[in-house]
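## retry 2 of 3
previous attempt timed out at serialization; input unchanged, resubmitting
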Amino acid sequence: MLSKGLLFLFLFLEVLFCFGGRALAQPGLQQLVVTYVEFKPADFGAGAQMLEELAADAEASSGIVKFDVVQQIDRPNLFALFEVWTTPQAFLDFQSSSTTQAILFQLTNVLEAPLDERLGNLLAGTLSTRSQPAEDSQIFVITHVDSDPQFVGQITPLLDTFVNESRHDPGVETFALLSQTPTPNHFQLVETFADLQAFDNHVSAPHTVEFRSSTGGFLGAPYDERLYHFVKRRKGN
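## retry succeeded, writing output
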């Protein structure tokens, strides 16, 4: 039998492993990242330009699959970055580069809160690699679905079914389910719609209403749905 000291050490190391964030990323799997960016309202124009520079830096990096900069529709000083990298190491290499670090340092002068970075893994659905510039009408949606930890087993198959059904809704271009690392009861839905009408039709669809009704009792936080539009890259970036 383990002594109390050894047992404590074992449990302590296990906790460190479980909550080590990036240490949990599995080699060979794509690294998905959602980062929330909150600018001071008076400075979001300058901040948006810095994000464009960051996107250009990412697109010149090895291992990049996609790097989207999106702006929240109802609060123009709030942005999000959605990144897909071939491996966790590719993402870490990008973050540690001198160019990236310089841009991130400049960002601190115009932020109203620290960057909120969420690492994730793809559980269901597909993520397109957009080769064409975004249309003005396109809507990008990030939805947080935080399950009460004791109900993860019940809500996960419901989420999987919802994603598979929603992918076929008219006007849906991307509909994917992410699991946040290292918090397996935190999920994110990443969605792209052709326009706002397509989004409105989706949220009114019977399968969406059924999903919301069947999962309400399993949630540990409010269903958090945020709408964005894509930030178009300026020439020269």
